[in-house]
Amino acid sequence: MSLLNSFGKTNSDEIRERGTVNAFNSFKGWGFIRREKGKDVYFYYSDIDNEGLDLLIGDVVEFFVKEEAKGPRAYSISRIASKS
């Protein structure tokens, strides 16, 4: 489980994961990432680091994961490679 310190930063022992966007609905503001290892994770538009960045299906991203009631959620998402 990921924890944020009082400044909203991740703990130093946390490891960024890598995955591929396999669904993103920019109108509803959420999507899913297929992790390289483990269950798919959901995310909200607000979890993307770069404001205004629209992710596309097939984009490779890095992110942190935290457990929530709905399941694992990605946050602090940054695009590594675009599908196009």
UniProtKB/TrEMBL annotation:
Domain CSD: 16-79
GO cellular component: cytosol
Cited Pfam families: CSD
GO terms, molecular function: nucleic acid binding
Lineage: superkingdom: Bacteria
InterPro entries registered for this protein in UniProt: CSD, CSP_DNA-bd, NA-bd_OB-fold
Name of protein: Cold shock domain family protein
